[in-house]
Structures are given as C-alpha cells and as structure tokens.
Design a protein that fits this description.
Blueprint: H1 10-20, H2 26-36, H3 38-64, H4 69-95, H5 99-128, H6 132-143, H7 168-180, H8 186-201, H9 205-222, H10 225-245, H11 248-259, H12 262-285, H13 313-344, H14 349-365, H15 374-399
Helix pairs in contact: 1-2, 1-5, 3-4, 3-13, 4-5, 4-15, 5-7, 5-8, 7-8, 7-9, 7-15, 10-11, 12-13, 14-15
Length: about 400
C-alpha cells in the first residue's frame, strides 16, 4: 500500500470519494486496497460472507416466487452495495490506527464539496438567469443520478436532493462534536453552515427534523456547559445576522414557505399514505416470509425504472423479506456491530444507546425516503457501527 501513497491513505480515500460520487469504479480501488492489505481483506470476508449467504437464499426464494430476475438481482445489488461499503470502511478502520478519523474527515470534505456545488448552482442560476431546474436536470442526466427537484414560485430557489443527502445529518452530528470541544474557529462555523445549508436545500422535512435532533443530541452528549453556552451564543448571533441582515433570510423564508405549503404537503403525504396502506395489505397476506426481493405491487408503482422501490422502503422490505427475514437481517447487522464491542469490553450503556439511536434513525430515514440501502445506507450503518470510535478519534485529534 505504501508504495502507492506515502502515508498509505490515498487509495482508500479515493475509494471513499468515488463512493460519494456513486461511481462503480470505487470497486476497483477497494480491490486495489485489499491487494496491498491482506489483513483488511480477511476481516472484510469474515464480516460479509454470512450476509452474502443470506442474500443468495433471498434471491433463490424470490425466483421461486416468480419475481422478475432483473428486479431480484437489482434489489440484491442494492443491499449488497450497502454491505460492501459498510465493511470496507469498517475493515479500513480496524487495520489503521487513525482510520476512523480518516474516514470521517474524508466524508466531511466530500459533503462540504456537495454543499458548495449546490450553492454554486443557485448562484449560477441567479447570475445568468438560467432556470435552476434545467441545470439540475442536465447534471442528473450526465451524472446518471436521480436528483429530487422542486421549484419555488417567483424565486431561483430550488430543491436539490441526492441520495447521499441522507448522510449529511450524521456528519453534522460529529461536526458539532468537534466545534464544542475546540476553540471557536471560522472554519468549523463555515463547515457547519455549509452542511446545514445543504440539508435545508433538500427541502425534506424528515432530513430537517433529523438534523435538528442530531445537533441537539450532540450538544447534549459532547459539550461541557461552558462550551455549550458559548457555542450556542455564537451560532445564534450568526444565525440572527444571516437571517435578518442578508438576502439569505429571504431565501430561507422561500424554502420554508414552499415546503410547509399545505397543498404540496397534502399531495406528498397522500401519495405516501396510499403506498403504506397498499404495502400493509400485502404484508397481511404474507407476513412471515414475504413475497421475495424484487417484488412490487402491480397497482402501486412509484417508479417504472425501479418498480420495487417505495418511499417507505423500511416497510416495503418487510413486504419483500417478511417479518422473519427482515428481523434476521437487522439482527445480523446489529450482531456485527455489537459483538466486537462486547468482546473488546468497549460496549457500555452510553455507546449502546447512541448506536441504537443511529440505527433507528437509519430505519426511520428509510420510512420517508428510499435510501435505506445503497452507498448512503452503507455509510450510515458505518456510523452506527463505529460511533464510539469516531468520537474517540475526534477527541484525540482535538487534544493533539
């Protein structure tokens, strides 16, 4: 590994950036990393092989049920991708002393970059008079990623949401941790402001609520009273200035008014409710083993490109795997997180509760957005698995 990079980090960091870019080439760099790091590869295989066996059984059952081969393989790929990302990141952290902090820093940089791109899209639209919706559609076509959009009437403000946005609130949690335990720095405040702006531009009520919850949780767990009070005052003063003294206040108002519009929310919530009712009915008919992965409701299709994908992906996975299959998958995930902590003596009540809260947020996120699996799901599960280690490394690097 070190023959390619002086500190041995170039390949895994580049793989992380490719994961964030949703590029399939990340697989090549993961394989290259394991070529130079056999211990990491052995750990990866030890962790993932039972999950592969589970997915193969799920595929076999699904094909016997008569589900489309293409859809079965498509959903299996989504689940497998999240597991590859999860265990690649975990294995890198296991074999590298400062791996957790390296992953966190790389992810933080990636999401700062995403936030800057979102803001530049709006700035370019305002400066050139271009419709921001057209810019987003062009980027979506070139990038090959579905970006959720929503225009705000009489404004250049537009919804910009990508699947990776599901991770941003978790990055914000650790950024607040850093901010609370260091002297106030412009760079920390700017980072937090950019990440919060990125969440705001998703125009997702769930992401807003999740970000607020994780900010408050980080304040509660990571800040001493003095730093908590000082940071709160600084954030409030800056927020007051931005909202009341700059044009950004009008932008924020436009976003909030658009997303809180009762007619818009009613249409969105009605669609989600119809999907949930239909999925519940399907679950009642096959509650234990489900219909198999790749299954979709013929009279309730959200996307003709990916028919098995629903807004409430957590519930649709119960429809696919059944209650037994879904509980087995969740149990395997939690077991892979908790067993190493228990054996090493690191598992205490605090770490257990926070890890379970993050796992619950991953599950809840899948109830409002179809981002339960894939690369974004794998990174969120990484935070569930390595929460205490990341917090520890952040603290250690602050002391340095």
């Amino acid at each position: 590994m070190r023959i390619i990079s002086r500190n041995g980090l170039a390949i895994p960091k580049f793989a992380i950036y490719l994961i964030l870019a949703r590029s399939p080439f990340f697989v090549f760099f993961v394989a290259l990393y394991y070529f130079f790091n056999k211990s990491g590869f052995y750990f990866f295989i030890k962790k993932i092989y039972l999950f592969i066996f589970f997915i193969l059984l799920a595929c076999l059952y699904s094909l016997v049920q008569g589900n489309s081969t293409g859809l079965v393989l498509g959903q299996a790929k989504d689940i497998l991708l999240s597991l590859i990302v999860l265990f690649f990141l975990v294995s890198f952290c296991i074999v590298n002393k400062n791996g957790d902090y390296t992953v966190y820093k790389s992810l933080r940089f990636g999401f700062i970059f995403i936030a800057v791109i979102k803001i530049l899209i709006l700035v370019f639209a305002i400066a050139t008079g271009t419709n921001p919706m057209d810019i987003i559609r062009s980027i979506s076509e070139v990038w090959g990623v579905d970006m959720m959009t929503l225009g705000v009437e009489d404004s250049n403000v537009v919804r910009i949401q990508i699947p990776m946005d599901a991770i941003t609130p978790f990055i914000i949690y650790f950024c607040v941790h850093e901010m609370l335990n260091t002297k106030v720095k412009i760079s920390n405040i700017l980072t937090l402001a950019l990440l919060l702006s990125s969440v705001l531009l998703t125009m997702s009520r769930y992401f807003w609520a999740e970000a607020v919850f994780l900010v408050l949780l980080s304040f509660l767990l990571n800040g001493r009273f003095k730093s908590w009070l000082y940071s709160s005052v600084v954030v409030l003063v800056i927020s007051f200035f931005i909202y009341f003294m700059t044009p950004l206040g009008e932008v924020i108002n436009s976003i909030l008014n658009a997303r809180m519009d009762s007619m818009l929310n009613s249409a969105s919530d009605m669609s989600r409710t119809l999907q949930i009712n239909a999925i519940f009915t399907a679950i009642e008919n096959k509650p234990f083993f489900g219909y198999g992965i790749g299954y979709y409701l013929p009279n309730m299709i959200r996307s003709y490109d990916v028919k098995y994908l629903y807004e409430n992906q957590s519930l649709s996975m119960i429809m696919s795997l059944g209650a037994i299959g879904f509980l087995i998958l969740c149990g395997m995930l939690l077991g892979s997180f908790l067993t190493p902590e228990l054996l090493s003596g690191r598992l205490n009540v605090s770490n257990l509760i926070i890890g379970l809260i993050m796992f619950a947020l991953w599950m809840a996120g899948g109830s409002f957005n179809p981002f339960l699996f894939g690369a974004s799901g794998g990174i969120i599960l990484f935070f569930c698995a390595r929460y205490s280690h990341i917090s520890e490394k952040i603290q250690a690097n602050i002391i340095k």
